[in-house]
Amino acid sequence: MSTKNTYPLYVKATVILAGIIMTIYGMIVAKGILVPLLLSAFFAVLLIPPCDVLESKRIPRSIAALLGMIFITFILSSIGFMFTNEIRSFGDELPDIQERIEQLGDDTHASLIRYSPEFIKPRVEQMDFGLANLVDIDLSSATLRVLSTVGGLTMYFLIPIFIYLFLIYRDFIGVFMVKAFSGGDKDRIRSLVEKVKNVVQSYITGLFFVICIIAVLNVILLLSLGIKHAVLFGVFSALLNVIPFLGPILGSILPAAYSLLTMDSLWIPFAVILGSYIIQLFEGNLITPVIIGNKVSMNPLSTIVALLVGGQIWGLVGMILFIPALAILKILFDEVEGLKPYGFLLGSVDKKYKTAPPVKYKDQDAGPASSA
User: Fold this and answer.
1) 241 plus 101 within the same structural domain
2) Residues 37, 138: one domain?
3) Residue 185: inside a domain, yes or no?
4) How many domains, the chain?
5) Is 233:279 a contact under the CB 8 Å cutoff?
6) Which of 251, 267, 295 represents a domain boundary (last residue)?
7) Are residue 62 and residue 111 in the same domain, yes or no?
8) Which of 142, 168, 194 is the last residue of a domain?
9) Which residue among 137, 196, 316, 367 is buried most deeply as judged by most CB within 10 Å?
10) pLDDT digit of tens for each residue in the chain (372 aa)?
11) Is 371 among the domain residues?
């Protein structure tokens, strides 16, 4: 008679923990390979619909993939060039901003001395705010450090090549997944792979369009208020929008603080925050539900944890990659029967789970005690 082998809970927990540690260590060691592969895969997913359209017009797949690779390379290069110029232009204004902050600190210090009680005035006079040190940075070297965090120039040459190869061999990769995970039921795995591909493709494409729309709205808002570097602040705020709660707040505070330091009117920072709030309402209630819908929805806790883990493992690039990667994992978990609880853990929280149900005790269910 065969008996089922069972292991104690501490053995299972140890094995799982060791597997997580080895996976994270492997991701850190293989950063130079995994980061360009993942970036290329996400960009390739964005290019699949236009490549399908070109191929339907009897254009060979190699030519369609080459055109898509050239297009995305041109777009990314233009965005990088634009951001580099905007950051350098912003860096030229740092001395003026630093002087304004020093003046603000001196005025605040003088006001505190004037209105402080006599017994603490000596301590107040010795205070040093040091606000100017907050912007005492070299943006040129900082930009170069940011660009070098993703593995050097080699990665920038590898990404277009990987995008082209992913587009060429996308059907081949799909057949490999069917052969590797079918377990005898190829039709079910083929249907699952196709469904996951369509959902991932629509989610990443929709997220890209949402970021573009929010960026355009932010730039229009900042330009209408006469704020310089509107493109830099608008696009950066749109990218921060993927971070729940903190992203939209930080994205509106940065241009508001810049306008407060560089412009004389106090109404402009207020208008920036109010306009950003209206854009967020518009995005949350109309743009995202229409473009992305409810195909993939993650709760803020899992998103913030993904950002922190991605930042610790791969730095800035990890923070960018881990959110769509987590969305892909949720799609896979929702489609695989044994992994659905983990998809539920990553998903949005239903209203009935936000508050704990009232605890009932046996004495409450038994009714009033009978009198003796």
Assistant:
1) no
2) yes
3) no
4) 3
5) no
6) 295
7) yes
8) 168
9) 196
10) 444 557 787 787 888 889 888 988 888 888 888 888 888 888 888 888 889 899 998 899 999 999 988 988 888 888 777 777 777 777 777 777 777 777 776 667 677 777 677 667 667 666 665 554 555 555 455 554 555 544 555 567 788 889 999 999 988 888 887 777 766 667 777 777 777 777 777 777 888 888 889 999 999 999 998 888 888 888 888 888 777 677 788 888 888 888 887 777 778 888 999 998 898 888 877 777 777 665 566 777 887 888 888 888 887 778 778 877 887 788 778 777 777 888 888 877 665 555 544 445 444 444 444 443
11) no
Residue range(s) defining the domain that contains residue 128: 18-168
Instruction: Using alpha carbons only, give the angle 23, 25, 27 rounded to the nearest 5 degrees.
Output: 70
Residues 283 and 306 in one domain: no
The answer to whether residue 174 is domain-embedded is no
Single-letter amino acid code for the residue at 243: I
Residue 275 lies in a domain: yes
Could you tell me if 222 and 142 lie in one domain?
Answer: no
CA gap 34, 28 in Å, rounded:
9
Question: Could you tell me if 104 and 203 are in contact, meaning their C-beta atoms sit under 8 angstroms apart?
Answer: no
Q: Measured between alpha carbons, how far apart are the two ends of the chain, in Å? A: 58
Looking up tokens 């490999």 gives: 176
Distance in angstroms (rounded) separating the CA atoms of residues 319 and 22? 20
Tokens of 249: 């707040």
Residue 298 β-bridge partners:
347
Angstrom CA distances, 12 to 18, 152, 249, 280, stand at: 10, 40, 41, 44
Amino acid occupying residue 138: D
